[in-house]
Amino acid sequence: MEHLKYTAFIRVSGYKSLLSASDMSLAVTALLECDTAKSKESIQNGNGGAEVQLDEEEEEERALTTSFNIAYDALNSNGSSSTFATIGSGGLGGSTEGTDLTTMVNGGDMNGNNGLGAGVRLAMSVQKSIISTAVSLVERNAITRLSHFRYAYLHATSHGANGSTKFQGGKADSNKQNAHHIFSKPLALTKLANYLMDMHRANNKWTGTKALPLVLLAEKPQTQSYLVVGFEYPSIKGSTKRNSFKDRFEMAANSLEEGEFLFDSFDSNVIEVKSDVSRFIEQLHYMIDSVMIKD
Amino acid sequence: MLLQKENWRLGYHQIISDCRASTAHSTGGTVLILVNPDADALCAARILSYALRADKVPYQLRPCGGYNCLVKILQKLALHGDDVEGSSSTIRAVVLLNLGATRNLQQALFEPTIDYNDKDEEIITVPLLNQDHTKLYVLDSHRPYHLANIYAQKNIVLWNDFNFWHNEEGGIPSDGEYLDDQSDDSESEDEDDSESDDSDSDASDSEGEAEFDDEDDKIRNNDGDSSDENVDLESGIRSSTGSPESKRRKKARINPNTPEIRDTDDERDNDNATAVKKTDVPIMSMRDKHKLRRDKVRKYYSNGSFHSSPVAFMAYTLLADQLRHDSVGDLLWLACIGVTDAFVHDRLDLSGYARLALELQEKIEKVYPDLRNEDRITERLANTMHAEELYEKENYNGPMTEVGFSENGKILYQRDEFRFFLLRHTTLWDAMILSPDVNTKMELWRSSGIKKLKEMLAKMGLPLAQCQQPYAFMKPSLKRRLKVMMNEHEEVSLSCLS
User: Fold this and answer.
1) Which residues pair with residue B35 across a beta bridge?
2) Which domains does chain B possess?
3) Residues in A touching B80 (Cβ below 8 Å)
4) Hey, are the CB atoms on A32 and B39 less than 8 Å from each other?
5) What is the pLDDT of residues B21-46, one digit of tens each?
6) Do A72 and B61 touch (CB under 8 A)?
7) What angle do CA B85, B88, B92 make, to 5 degrees?
8) Structure pTM?
9) Spatial distance between the Cα atoms of A59 and A65, rounded to a whole number of angstroms
């Protein structure tokens, strides 16, 4: 089992506990990407009952700020009280910040419902859904191979387990609060892609001419759009490959007359498609095709 | 501008001198730190804010998940005006952590935006940031940089780790047109007038000429050598801010005394692309040179995006090597997390991780010098796990922990850590099943794979019941056996795979 071992960093974090850097990384990432009911709740608590109507964007921004603060706090290795209390509540966020901080400062408490302990548990459940989603994609043959790349849909209603359930606008509106789709977050999606690639590297199914990049299309129920992310497929495990999807996505988006495309992420292999996403994938195929012929 | 590794502290000192309330007439300012939502950037934010606290500079932290969010945050700042604390008037520095380097920040933040309303009237919005007042500092692992950021004036500072990332495509293209790789060169025309003359000091003029010659050579030979001519290393930030002048601008202002370079007005009119001709190098027409540069820029962008060193590592390098915060274990730990995070998320490949891990090990040995003399670190590690073992000794009456206070906070490194998933917080069984590496290798997602795993554990002499205990409560003897067995039974495990 090559690559099964690596040099790890481990910290003695107090009485009888050892923490490895990868544990920290996974837990913090999970805290960042899981805008769970809890984080929403704590926002509402912080408002002191003041009912303020928020539009979606603001809500998303608040959710991000909350999970950011929780994750930032969890990084505090000695578990002492947080530092962001004094700095996070500047004039920028207005009254939305400065929530009741005492509930989330137990960063060092492994058993707490907040902080690192929660992060570890979240990371575990995220990892479980990554594996089960990947397996279900493979078993359902839900990964389609085109001549230049592979692609697969991840629908919110199904957690990827049932691809035939199509998204329905009205239905999603009613339970928008609950529509929680872990793969609409880029880091979880990246992990899923990496797992799928590992899987097929191990069973030698994606080798030679079948070694193709992978495009994942994850539904974002909140904004009724799709997060489309392109991953290169390095045929050797542990290596990286430069990602050319920025140009490809741009070409496809520019050549389509209608549709809304957002290049919002700072990762250039990510595009958000607010229109007919299957049309976009089709166009992506044609554009790559035409470039290949030219070369 | 690019700030090379040796000069990183100059960027930091600039923040401090801009923001610290020192004299009677300056009230000081606030640093706004915008953080990309990933663990690496969070670690970098913690590291950087440590230094700012030490220097008594106020700062604000905000997550920033996308380009629109960045613009929105800065718009809000600009709107709030003078009356709100923490508004644009007091924000003297904006630090971007793991975001922004690939976008045209100069255009987006420092230039006025022109919009058209229904009646086709121009609406000009003031720039989001006032370049005389606020500077932008970017610490980002996303590559390639947008060239406009590199060749922006001193209002954008990119903390750059290495130039060698771009060796493959012949280095970073020189300044000039098409920084966007789009056929629109009107921008640089405007810049010519708007950008100040004060940066055009004598030093930068002569520097500019030298650079010009270099550039020509490079184009002629199509030399793959990476360029760091854009920062004047010796004279530091002040003069270096003047030197990355547009090559085009330099040509326009070239010293007429230089014999080699002749500035001809006719030519400038005829050939709108270039104004200067080098008479003693008639090898290539300006049009060809132009095309070469165009191609170079295109190659620079189209070669694909990738990641440089993790930002937490860069931030730690800045603090430890250049700001004398090198003895703080907490910061080193954050750097370790950042590097591991990049590795876990495949932003860093095996060799890159190995290189950084080695550097981190050296730093760990410096911060915790007693580690260096212990060649049996793993054994020591076993000792620190002693507290868990004590639960198993029923007759034990001594103190319940062997983890002394001196051990607390110590960072250890272990060369043969298994890539199991969250091993210390779950059972060995789950950690193996959830590990992407083990899971995919042994096909644990099939029932046949699970059977093989059971077989393997049995052959190693690890009872299944023990493997499904929380790892912390697994028998210590079995933990030790696991390590030995995994090495010895490499064949066993391999045969299970076949």
Assistant:
1) B63, B97
2) 1-162+308-367 (3.90.1640.10), 169-303 (no CATH)
3) 91
4) yes
5) 765 556 778 899 999 999 999 999 99
6) yes
7) 100
8) 0.77
9) 10
